[in-house]
Amino acid sequence: MSSHIEEFYSCLPEPIDLEESKKLIQDFCCRNTETDCKTVLVTSGGTTVPLEHNTVRFVDNFSAGTRGSASAEYFLENGYSVIFLYRLKSLEPYVRHFTGQAFLDMLETNKSGKEKCIVGELTFPVKQESVAAVLPILLRYQSVKETGRLLCIPFTSLADYLWLLRAVSESLADLGPRALLYLAAAVSDFYIPANEMPTHKMQSEAGPPTISLQLVPKVLEPLVNTWLPHAFVVSFKLETDESLLISKARGALTKYKHKLVIANILQTRKNKVVMVTTDSHYEIVVTQEETNSAVEIESKIVADLKQKHDHFIALVIANILQTRKNKVVMVTTDSHYEIVVTQEETNSAVEIESKIVADLKQKHDHFIAVSHCR
After folding, report:
1. What InterPro entries has UniProt attached to this entry (predicted)?
2. Where are the domains of the chain?
3. Which residues of 278-295 are buried (b: 16+ CB within 10 A; e: fewer)?
4. Which of 122, 252, 310, 359 is in the most buried spot, having the most CB atoms within 10 Å?
């Protein structure tokens, strides 16, 4: 990680429960490493930027977590294990279908209002007309819960999000190309450094406050190049000017070297996105007829990404199989190095095993010599 990013993190307050969250994340990733399951990190919702250390006021954005929560469900339906890093009190998978008073309107009690309710006798069945809406979602949720394929980790502030993103990334590293990052959270571009924030609530008697916002360093660079160099990383780009959309998305791909940008316009984001790679772009659209049939655009996005991710994994495996005859990595407890057979050596019938054995002989002789000296 660059010194600039390290310095930035050193000034960010850690979440109070960071170590507890790390343990949950590590255990979840270990289980998926053992089972060879594809795992996706879905980030969702907006980050707050506190204006005071004892936070009363903060800068926020309009993100409700709609895209992230829906996408998490579709990744689960497509066989992925999901780490859902979400803004506290934003939409969550499965629960998102029953927001506000809608869920209460689906319930009824087995007692009339005039009867005395005895604890243990009162039940809350789902109204018959609502069973068709509730039951399929409940069954999907219970199946996911029983198999342990969903881990939900909440955040609130920008600092919470960045620390947790780093923790998840470090834990996903062992999954290599089987890890997918779907960075749908609306992360603040600006923040107030801790040393410039007042400790207590700003008082109106002091007059209008002068607030100086600083740019948040882009952690996508260390994420792609250092934390998770072998993962399939997808970011999002939201614009209001359609003429800038593709160029901005391509600019991000060129700068950060990740795999794909999902670009969308604010006004049409619910029914149209543009999938942008370094050499192509194409639209994914939900028609009015599909919308009327409750088709969500996230189902199409995830299906497309699954296909791309599977292809990416296949290419990585093919590359490993192809290179195993001319390159190996020798790993010890304190170092690692490559042994390589060049094309010229291959043409001269040099086998990589001859180099491996020569290297091991040298190490074994050294080991024997050291043992005799003890």
Report:
1. CoaB-like_sf, DNA/pantothenate-metab_flavo_C
2. 3-95+134-230, 327-373
3. eeebeebebeeeeeeeee
4. 252
Q: Please, are residues 184 and 67 in contact by the beta-carbon 8 Å criterion?
A: yes
Paired tokens of 26: 């590590």
Task: Please report, for residues 255, 259, 287, 300, the alpha-carbon distance to residue 245 in angstroms, rounded to integers and kept in the order given.
Answer: 16, 17, 21, 20
Q: Name the token pair of 37.
A: 């399951």
CATH code that applies to domain 3-95+134-230: 3.40.50.10300
Distance CA 164, CA 31 (A): 19
In 171-321, DSSP assigns E strands to: 179-183, 190-191, 214-215, 232-239, 260-265, 272-276, 281-285
Using one digit for the tens of pLDDT, what is the confidence trace for 258-276?
999 999 999 999 999 999 9
pTM value?
A: 0.84
Find, among 64, 69, 67, 63, the residue nearest to 93 by Cα: 69
Would you tell me how many other CB atoms lie within 10 Å of the CB of residue 163?
20
Q: How far apart are CA 208 and CA 206, in angstroms?
A: 7
Tell the residue number behind the tokens 């959309």, with chain if given.
Answer: 245
**Other Cβ atoms closer than 10 A to 186:** 22
**What residues contact residue 4 under an 8 Å CB cut-off, 6+ apart?**
217
Token couple for 283:
């639209």
Q: Is the pLDDT of residue 112 over 70?
A: no
Mean pLDDT on 187-203: 86
With a pLDDT cut of 90, the percent of the chain lying above it is 61
